[in-house]
Specification:
By secondary structure, this protein is of the alpha+beta class. It is built from 16 helices and 21 strands. It binds flavin-adenine dinucleotide (FAD). The site of flavin-adenine dinucleotide has 38 residues, from helix 1, strand 2 and helix 9.
Length: 540
Amino acid sequence: MIKPRRVLIVGGGSSGWMAAAYLDAVLNHDGQSVADIGLIESPDVPRIGVGEATIPSINHILAAIGIDENEFLKRVDGTFKQAIKYVNWLDGRGESYYHAFGRYRPSPVDTSSQDWLMSDRSIPFSETISAQPVICESCLAPKMLGQWDMGTRLTYAFHMNALGFADYLCELATSRGVKHYSDHVVDVEMAENGDIAAVHTRAGKRLEADLFIDCTGFAGLLIEKKLGVDWIDCSQWLLCDRALTIQVPYEHNYPGYVRPNTLATAVSAGWIWEIPLQNRRAWGYVHASDFVSEDDAEKELRAFVGTPADDLPARLVPFKVGYRAKAWVRNCIAIGLSAGFIEPLESTGLYMSDLATVMLTEYFPYHDDMAPLAFRYNRIIANRFHEILDFINLHYCLTRRTDTGFWREVRKPARMTDRLRAKLDFWRSKPPSAADFEDQWFPGQPDTPLPPGNLPGDHRSPIDTADVFGIDSYEAILYGMDFLNAECSDWFGESRPQTRIAKTIAERLALAPRKLPPHDLWLTRVLGMPDYPAAPRKSG
Ligand SMILES: Cc1cc2nc3c(=O)[nH]c(=O)nc-3n(C[C@H](O)[C@H](O)[C@H](O)COP(=O)(O)OP(=O)(O)OC[C@H]3O[C@@H](n4cnc5c(N)ncnc54)[C@H](O)[C@@H]3O)c2cc1C
């Protein structure tokens, strides 16, 4: 019999329960118990209750835990997400672009980006490389009602109820043997060697473990309050520090459709998300408190949502942007908001918890000498935070908006990371291509080392490994934000051929309205979403 390692997860938000369910599914399969897992969550500290949009990597974690997709969607009031639509980010005059999850790649050579750059750009770039922008505009589901017969499947993620997700994972994990303590941690006991020995609870329990996972959200109860690990602040590059949210139940107002994408609309001091579920729509105004007061932000959000928000409460969710200098120290690993957060624009919060958990199963400490494991783990996590930081930064810094102090500020060179500036400078001499993501060190990029640690190489600057946001994602944002427009005129002349859509995409779009049902119809037929009466549409 293998002697199981004792793992105690402190915190029962989405990250805590994702870690519990995934570690249990991957480490304790086929009757073998490698990890003896417990989770303690405070009945007094609520979960953050946001984190409702995901990216396609969620499919892997659901599959690994053994979750059926339809059952999952029913339990979390879930809907499909095929893309993010960005409105008003460039000029603030109603323009928009899509960052779609799926991309068509012609073979044997994909020249679609060059073809678009050499064309008159009369069709948005995203529509030339994916059918999903038009499918989203038509509010169609990414799945058929019957057997799929449309060729390559469409890539999707989900919108879901965050609290429902954690509850569902809790139910699954505890039914499979994960221990659940509803109690408040009041003290953390240290061992003589500097490891955490145990946590003490308000009910008088002393819980020991070999490995502690800090999932206490921004509180960072173990990693920060006890172990004193620094938080690397990134607010210089991303100015938003809080969100105001409003949820509108469909009983109150149902618009008559369910968008199969997230909407991110730039407004005076940040941006507003719109996320549809099976029973409600949620809006969140992510804003910078230095540029708009809470009262004014609420007025702006209510004006944006309109009458559906009347009489419904708004909730303020403060956040900080940055990441832990080291997510894994001694026998403690921070996962979730305690490890870092790079604002919600591309829905990367849950992805980072997912990545951290998946990596932990690979780097699982079967012995007490955890330092070499922690060293590499920390480097990979730091790289990923930098990758996300640069990519989110990109959304803001190419704006042409000057209408408010916020937009004038985000355009300033000091608000762009050095790495991103180096990339953009390079790409002004040659459009981005796949090979650029093989080595992310561009001319002009300064060396910004991490604080030195105890192992050789600890000080190395993080690099962007382009694992989650590579060439496809960069091109979607860059060309959506009109990058290289002037350069293309210089390089290829003013009079260029009309933009064309690849035959494969045109064929798929011709089939889509016949084959793909409206998103709400799919949800009603397959999942049993109620048939809400639509609010009367305003004319005009
Ligand atoms: C405004 C905003 C929008 C976001 N939108 C998205 C999105 O669209 N997509 C996405 O992927 N991510 C998003 N995120 C990130 C996402 O919300 C988080 O990554 C996710 O919810 C995980 O949170 P968590 O579990 O780390 O923390 P929390 O949900 O805060 O959970 C903390 C847990 O710790 C427990 N705890 C605290 N103190 C104690 C104690 N003393 N004793 C015992 N237990 C304790 C609490 O009871 C709770 O269970 C967003 C974040 C913000 C701020």
